[in-house]
Prior knowledge:
Number of helices: 14
Distance between the termini: 97 Å
Strand order of the largest sheet: 2-1-3-11-4-12
Helix content: 25-40%
Mean pLDDT: 89
Strand content: 15-25%
Largest sheet: 6 strands, mixed
Number of strands: 13
Amino acid sequence: MRRILGIALAVLLLGGVVAVALAGGDKTPTTATKTVKGVIGSEKSEYFRDPDVVKALADKGYTVKTETSGSWAMDQLALKEFDFAFPSSSEPATEIEAAAGVKGAQTTKPFFSPLVVIARSNAAKVLADNNLAKMTGKNSGTLLMGPYLKAAGEDRTWQQLSGSAAFAELTGTVFIKTTDPATSSGALFLAATSNVANGNSVVSDQAAIDRTAPLMQKLISVQGALEPSTDDPFRAFISGSGEPLILAYESQVASLLQQKPGPGATDGMVVLYPDTTVNSPHTFVPISENAKELGSLLANDPKLRELAVRHGFRPQNGVSEFTAATASHAAYINPELTGIRQVSAPTVKILMALAARAKG
């Protein structure tokens, strides 16, 4: 009887072990131990909403909640309500640190994205035919900033450009739709265009502001109502509405392409890289102790770097990763930024003064 009971007990114990194993009992449960709240640029919303990103962060002990704001307006928020801020460029980070009372915080730049101009194919053709752009393929090219700004300064219309008569949708003044330069990526557009207008040098004093402001005002005032972030103009363009030329981050384009959108979604899209640009290093500013290590994690964790590339961002020192991920979309993307002059932005004080003049 004892032998029979012993065998039965062994069978029950073995069955319990098998049941635990089948239920995943031998795995360490994934539990996020820190909940942090951050304010981010809208171009990173999809990244932080991605279930794979959520899981990767949870595996490292974080639950991340986010709200969006124009990067250049973040310093005006009640920053003590957030654990971190994550603007789309490094220039606002200093102002954010000061406003949050964390000046000298250990900021991190996990990834970056250059600005691009997205054009309808007909608009890109007309620009190229009039030497305002140079095509490098059916869906890619370079915006020639000098000639483009000369045309903008002269208030050129589409109708005045050779070949535009064939395209009824191209009417009115030629302009690039940007966001509000006082709050969002439109500021970086002014940084690049003012550099060209200032003899290819950074605007650094009042005399340079006075010299370039009239042209900057033409670039902005012709647009009418200004969007607070890049997300809305980009979505309007992809849906087939909006202006024929819009300013965007390369990351938005690269992310869209990697999502393999349906047939025709990008057929009429041309990506023009301005030949003078300001790169946009997305800068993580920790505000509370809870978020102190999160920026480094976003920059260095292999899985999170891979996911950043999937969302179109270029990891710092990660050209090869970005090139490999976008290889099948080379018709649109310039992975090495060949032929692109990269310049520094003015100080925040100078740039905001320029934005104020540009908005009138």
